[in-house]
Amino acid sequence: MKPVLIRLHRWVTLVLLVPIVFLIVTGGILALQPMVQDLTSGPALERPVPVGEAAALLRAVDGAAQARALRFEAPGTLVLEFSRQGVRAVHAFDMATRRDLGPRAEGAQVFHTIGSLHKHFVLGLEWLVEVATHALVGVLLIGPLLAWPRLRNTVAGWHMALGWGALPVAGVIAVTASLLALGVGTGGVPQVDRSAGRLALPQALEAAARDHGLTHIERATTRQRVTVVLTGRAGDDPVTLVVTRDGITPMAGNLPLLEALHRGTW
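^ that's the sequence the OP posted. Answer follows.
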């Protein structure tokens, strides 16, 4: 049995070496995004903002409805991520005066490009990314079955030692990636019709307030071009809502935790 596992471990890694290394490198770059954002941002606003106030503020500072994401910082700053002719940029605005405080050096365009490559590889080869993700889980599961770590100053010794040492983190990243790719724990997020057109953030906020009682907003993010994920409160209850032109779905299940574990932000 062990010789079979050794061959499987070796040949799966060799055959899928390029996409696996590609996933590791692009994922490592993306792991820097929260750190960059922390370095360039202020503390989060202590209280969520009323939906009506947030929608009015958005319409005042973003008349062309180009904002794809928002968050709030203390003492009173609105931070928006824009997509203008395919180029991402982050700007901060004073909530009281609505004055543009200038761009933020968060590398939004760089991380957007790397994130797209990480998910879709090249030439739209999403299936290859998914296969490599599941294969990496298999490789990581087989590895510990082959040998206990031995402190020997050889290539094989270092390989086993590094493999065992990195297993907890690498295992979490690979397993959560595989689960997300399979749609496990998505909390009932609906299938997205990308031909339906993008929903502007003010429209998403107002629809969530009208149909699902959203009263306050903490942050919003546009995904897959046509889906807006809102995090806020409905009265005293924290809620996360997925808003599309077809309807609104409360997000349940483990998706936020899985994503936080996968991205290393938990």
